[in-house]
Amino acid sequence: MRKIIGVLLVCLCLMTAALPGETASPTTLTFWTFQELHKAFMDDAVESWNKANPNEQIILKTEVYPYDQMHNKLLISLQSGVGAPDLADIEISKFANYLKGRNPQLVPLNKIIEPKLDRLITARFENYSKDGKYYGIDYHVGATVMFYNKEYLDQAGVDVDTIVTWDDYVAAGKKVVAATGKPMTTVEVTEHWTFYPMLSQYGTDIFTPDGKVILDNADNVKVLTFIKDMIYKHEIAIPAPGGFHHAEEYWAFMNQGGAASLMMPLWFMGRFVQYMPDLKGKIIIRPLPAWEPGGNRSAGMGGTGTVVTVQSKHQDLAVRFLDAAKLSREGAIKTWTILGFDPLRWDVWDDPAMREDNIYTEYFGKEVFNMLLEIKDEINPTVITDKYPLAIDLLKKNVCFKALRELSQSPEEALKEAARELRR
């Protein structure tokens, strides 16, 4: 009887296995995101995966939700133990909410990250880690750079490559204002993309690695005071029209030649291409001025970590697919060619594919990644704690507005008030 059962089992396996030259039944993976562009990137990654793995086909079922709805739905699903997808995007300012407790409901990704760490911008992986385990993989480095309008600098007789420090930047800004009547730059007063990169570049942060609140330390007060002085003392900057660099009023202002430069992460290139077409061919990209000669000239900002949830019934496949999509050489290059982002793998930055004609090289030129190779080791990790989402909200809604726009508090007062809130 046992022999008969054994023969039947072998026959059943032969009947269900894929024959030579045939493909196995595809596996459906679910993916939640809040960004249509990320869906397009992952759809392309599935096509590449299926071509390379004919016997392990994937069907990716993607749901694109509004930002808050997706994050709330995912958190509830993970906390309840029911209904989570195989893969999901989690924006960096929300990520700490998913790492609370001893056992995050996300699959550690060390086995695909650690073998490639020597080719990766490691600071970007620390953002999504806890207790030595990596839980998310970003889409980009988010290297903060300076976008300069070369026409204005030329009118003022300023050679952009002589701007080495922030003091040089202020001096150049005064020349630009005098020669063109245009502000050197704009400052966000309802968002954090001006203050936080300069803070990180200075070598400080909101928290220490062990979670202590240092938002109100002397270094941070100095950075915020410097930004305020650019507006009201040196008069080379203005608050961004609309309050921040993603306001429609701001894009219209810049498209009409509103300011001579702008500090934002490299992924802001897409906003130039889409919303400021009249500046095509006028904008050049350079590292940030350093606080001191030899200091850091960039900071990694923004980001979205893609995760695999513990509820996935296909964890191994989901992890291997994520590896191919984001950490492979081909996937890294497509981060640029599809999304216009700076890839996590710095070893592709000098690949010829990064200089092939596309909408970004036509707008900004082909030397962007040569510049990035110079600053790849000048990006500090961001300290992410369970209070990080609250901290970012405080920077956006309270600190920057009160200290830089409303002027109802000094930089020191605004930072101390926010720090007290975090310590509570």
List the helices and strands and how they pair.
Layout: H1 2-16, E1 27-33, H2 36-52, E2 58-64, H3 67-80, E3 87-91, H4 92-95, H5 110-113, H6 123-126, E4 129-130, E5 133-134, E6 144-149, H7 150-155, H8 166-180, E7 185-187, H9 195-202, H10 218-232, E8 237-239, H11 248-255, E9 261-265, H12 269-275, E10 283-286, E11 304-308, H13 315-327, H14 329-339, H15 359-364, H16 368-375, H17 388-405, H18 411-423
Parallel strand pairs: 1-2, 1-3, 7-8
Antiparallel strand pairs: 3-11, 4-5, 6-9, 6-10
Helix pairs in contact: 2-14, 9-10, 13-14, 17-18
Overall pLDDT level? 92
Helix count from the secondary structure assignment: 18
Helix proportion of residues, in percent?
40-55%
Residue stretches low in confidence (pLDDT < 50, at least 5 long) are: 1-21
> Order of strands side by side in the largest beta sheet?
2-1-3-11
- The secondary structure category is alpha/beta
Shape: globular
The total count of strands amounts to: 11
Tell me about the largest β-sheet.
4 strands, mixed
Strand content: 5-15%
Which series of helices and strands comes N to C?
HEHEHEHHHEEEHHEHHEHEHEEHHHHHH
Rg estimate, integer Å: 24 Å
Question: What is the terminal-to-terminal distance?
Answer: 70 Å
What does this structure look like?
- This protein has 424 residues and is α/β, with parallel strands linked by helices.
- It is 44% helix and 12% strand.
- The strands form four sheets. Strands 2-1-3-11 form a four-stranded mixed sheet, sandwiched between helices.
- Helix 2 (36-52) runs antiparallel to helix 14, helix 9 packs across helix 10 (218-232) and helix 13 crosses helix 14 (329-339).
- The longest helix is centred in the C-terminal third of the chain and has 18 residues, at 388-405.
- The protein starts with a helix and ends with a helix.
